[in-house]
Amino acid sequence: LAKTTQPISMDSYEGQEVNITCSHNNIATNDYITWYQQFPSQGPRFIIQGYKTKVTNEVASLFIPADRKSSTLSLPRVSLSDTAVYYCLVGDGMNYGGSQGNLIFGKGTKLSVKP
Amino acid sequence: GAGVSQTPSNKVTEKGKYVELRCDPISGHTALYWYRQSLGQGPEFLIYFQGTGAADDSGLPNDRFFAVRPEGSVSTLKIQRTERGDSAVYLCASSLRGLDTGELFFGEGSRLTVL
Questions:
Q1: Rounded distance, CA A31 to CA A49, Å?
Q2: Is the confidence at residue A104, as pLDDT, over 80?
């Protein structure tokens, strides 16, 4: 399974766009890139998943370059409630129900949003 | 309920005691995962069930840890002869087999403290 590298922490202010980049140099052909958000005393919560180019949903965008060795989670106009830890995971998203259930979480990026 | 339910939410025990942690996944989700999370760290994979069988138990740290899912729904994580190093938040997640988004739904966790 591909290992990921993210910044340990980031600071931002309300209303700004935040971009968190994750490196995954040994990503495999079948691997998807998934981001989770975790608040204190809660379990992680799925944000977005993608394979290539760009994916957008109601809360975030995910940018994946052609070589797929990195990805960027973009949070538009953050608010105080976006303060959380963000995890980047790489794995076989089409086969979570298969033999490989080991999804590796790194230490994540602690995002602090200030007023 | 609508989400993944874990009980107890908090468990304090003494070193050497036996502990059981329960996970009730989202109805219909055939895949179930156990993770544990120490303070300041990302979730660490323990075991993954597909239906009643453990498809991947490579994350269980030693033979004191065991998990079952006898009817393919509720799962119990069992820890024998607890040690202080077992203190952590134990997270359970479930997902729907065949869902190609790979989204895991996490419970709020069971916080285990071994004195």
A1: 11
A2: no
- What is the per-residue pLDDT for B102? 65
Give tens-digit pLDDT for B87-110. Answer: 999 999 998 863 345 688 999 999
β-sheet with A61-64: strand ranges across? A18-23, A70-75, A61-64, A53-56
Domains for chain B: give ranges and CATH numbers: 5-102 (2.60.40.10)
In this structure, are residues B25 and B92 in contact, taking their beta carbons and an 8 Å threshold?
A: yes
The CATH number, out of the four listed (3.60.15.10, 2.60.40.10, 3.40.50.1860, 3.40.50.2000), of the domain defined by the range A9-114: 2.60.40.10
Residues 75-114 of B with CB under 8 A from A: 91, 93, 95, 97-109
Give the amino acid at B52.
Answer: T
**pLDDT for position B97:** 62
Residue B114 in this model has a pLDDT that exceeds 70: yes
User: Do the Cβ atoms of B106 and A45 come within 8 Å?
Assistant: yes
